[in-house]
Amino acid sequence: MLFNSYEFLFIFLPVTLAIFFALGAKGLTRAATAWLAVASVAFYGYWNPVHVPLILASIGINYLLGEKIRQTQSRALLWAGVCGNLLLLGVCKYRGFVVENVNLLLGTDWPVPPQVLPLGVSFFTFTQIAFLVDAYRRSTSHYPGVRYGLFVLFFPHLIAGPIVHHNQLIPQLGNRSIFRFQSGPFAVGLTLFTIGFAKKVIVADTLSAWVRPIFDSAATGTVPGMVAAWVAALGYTLQLYFDFSGYSDMALGLARMFNVKFPANFNSPYKARSIIDFWRRWHITLSAFLREYLYFPLGGSRCGKARHYFNLFLTMLLGGIWHGAGWTFVIWGAWHGALLCINHVWRGIRGDRKPGTLENVAAGALTFACVIIGWVFFRASSVDAALNLLKGMSGGFVASDFSEYLRPSVWIAALLGIVWLAPNSQELMARHEPALHDVQPRRLSWQPSAIWALGLAALFALTVLHLSRVSEFIYFQF
Hints:
The protein has helices at residues 6-25, 29-45, 52-72, 75-93, 95-106, 121-136, 145-153, 155-158, 166-173, 183-219, 226-257, 275-281, 284-298, 305-323, 327-350, 357-379, 383-393, 399-404, 406-421, 425-428, 450-465. It is an all-alpha fold. The longest helix has 37 residues, at 183-219. The radius of gyration is 23 Å and the shape is globular.
């Protein structure tokens, strides 16, 4: 089920909230927890019921393994659990890619199996790998089985994140105060949800209609004109921004409706002045997972410079592969790995000198340009398609092409102004604790008032009117 669907908005969400708080009001907290878990299973199974046994089996096996690992400190069980999760991810996501490339390399003709990608498999496997590793480190406690199951299944983060750590969510699920309806957190959650809903439906889906034909044309071998190529590249850069930040806002908002806080997953990444800063702002919980459970175990920066750079590069390369089974994702991960290494080298050269205004502007522009190039590979259906689009971006400007793309160009210019100058959702809501991590509030700040309520009601109604077709979130495919 999708957040931006009539079934979710007008049936699933109201019914789930009503029964959850009705049970909580009667003190039936265990029943409320079980209800929320069952509702989350229904949310997951609505898309494809055949995958429900898979996720339930994954949760049961990982829970039992985690309990056993915590008690015995067995490294063998830890490796078995981690490898089992990675095997599940590999079989579901990468077997076709592997067979295809083996055929190409060896000249064989093995049949390429179809990709069977259960929703959220990349997210719920990473969530549970972290649980197993922390069980071995004895940084977990004994969690009731239903509460652990709800931790993994809780529908606001189940499909596309954020990647929530067990220490962040499970203690909240055991707090009796979350079972009582509270108007303050509910208003905050509804506001965040509405903002994210509008970002997805009005902005991201509009950009998608302009971006898709140009990328599809590049996939057929056509090199687009310069204006078209830049509309596609910048359009997708903004489409992904508003799609993913919209999903993140909706996820945080839904959690707050249930009196739960998620970690922030998005913090104005296009305002970054370096690639290091970008990865502190983009998909924050994925960056935290890769840092804690891959980069640090590899040695992090606690070794020689060459090994440090290798660890950085390998972490980002694997992060790229996590996003999808294709050479475009490998290149995207390698590109960001190389950029991070260069960024660290540059920091070592320039030292602690405080940059001036012009240097900050130049650094921001260079970072944004590097991110755009990466997104071209991320979006393209093949390496050749990405190269065709990059060739178009570097081609000659033809004034007549501009008139054809005048409307999307105006949209893109306006959206860039919003992205660079306006406060983000967490800054707008900062005084009311929208997420686990604090952010600095801005002068423009949301308040529970009639004016804000009327404005958000109008925005919600407008967004529903634009809901002519239900479209997936981009990160659903990962």
